[in-house]
Amino acid sequence: MYQQLGVIGCGLMGGSFALALKKAGLVKRVVGYSKSPSTTETARKMGVIDVAAESALLAVSGSDIVLIAVPVAATEATLKAIRHLVNPGVLFMDVGSTKCDVVDAAKRALGDRVAGFVPCHPIAGKEAGGVANADATLYQGCKVIITPSPVTDPAQVQRATDVWSAVGGQVVRMRPQHHDTAFAAVSHLPHLLAFAYFNAVATQARGPDFLSLAGPGFRDFTRIAASEPAVWRDILLANRADLLAQAHKFREALDGFERLIESGDPVALEAAIRKVSDARASWQPSDRPSPTGSNPAARPGGK
After folding, report:
1. SS3 22
2. How far apart are CA 177 and CA 195, in angstroms?
3. What is the rounded distance in angstroms from the CA atom of residue 295 to the CA atom of residue 142?
4. Is the Cα dihedral 23, 147, 86, 234 positive or negative?
5. 174-208, pLDDT tens digit by residue?
6. For 30, phi and psi rounded to 5 degrees?
């Protein structure tokens, strides 16, 4: 059992982690800090945290496990603020959706203390964010990607694996670059497409009329377009190289279907659709991770 969990960022992810550890009986006390005092106070009133800290440093002080649940662009500043408390006996983790930038930020911010930081990405979430939606069961059955760098302390990686497993996560290890390339394809690009597609429909002169007729297909396709803007701004910019490469591949595929439609060839168009339809019908999201430490390009799940 951990004596104290320090949570920096008491939103959906950080709050759910705190509740999950409490439910599993893995922590005695939770101290939380958020940039917004009202968020921290709400977390305290809800019982997500036991003590509201006035700074990130105070949330870390006395903690033997720390979760950093801030937007990825704020990772470096957060680590710099708590640097002198990053000691070998304390487990430090994040939950960022991109990992190369987080690993690089940790190296710059922590210097020779970086070995104690374990980069993590739990593939979990809800349509509605914020601490009000924190859920002790959020991580049950979800994949948790751990992307240690060559200098990460193996003992800390094992501790991170154990704690995520204890709250129901299925831990997969992979290299940071493989993580970012994979999630550019299965998470970041879908969000970009949803943003662009909804905007393309909504901003037309008759957009409101079109939207009034939209059914379940449109709803399901565009659901993630309602995601938190600041969070996705950071993710799309942080992983821009891989994202733009995947956008190029998508554009090539779309161009191919447009050419078939322009040709008016029903046989060729049906064959192309059938090929994709059959592939999608035979695909199932993997519900079990590859063994820890196996193929670093193990199949990730999408958000």
Report:
1. helix
2. 25
3. 19
4. negative
5. 999 999 999 999 999 999 999 999 999 999 999 99
6. -125, 125
